[in-house]
Amino acid sequence: MVFGLFAPLFTGAMLATPPAFVATLGGLAMLRVLQASFVTAFGTRFTLGALITFVVTVADVSVLNVGAPFWGLLAGLAVSWLLERQDFTTRVEGA
To answer: 46: closest CA among 93, 95, 79?
Structure first.
């Protein structure tokens, strides 16, 4: 209930701050999530495919009115299929 009482004050303070400050706060809040995602993505198999997927998706290139996430997944799969073929046949322990 205390949080609810102070919510209008906090909202007013956040609306009064510059947009760059709010974006910086949001970015700082996402650092741990990004770190955990990188550790998961680059920790085991298909590391190069995961990196290519990330880079193509972040590039935000739209081809034929299809967004970057689709092209990132397609590029990551293609790179993994060409360069990390042994990861497709390797069994994961516990699976």
So the answer is: 79
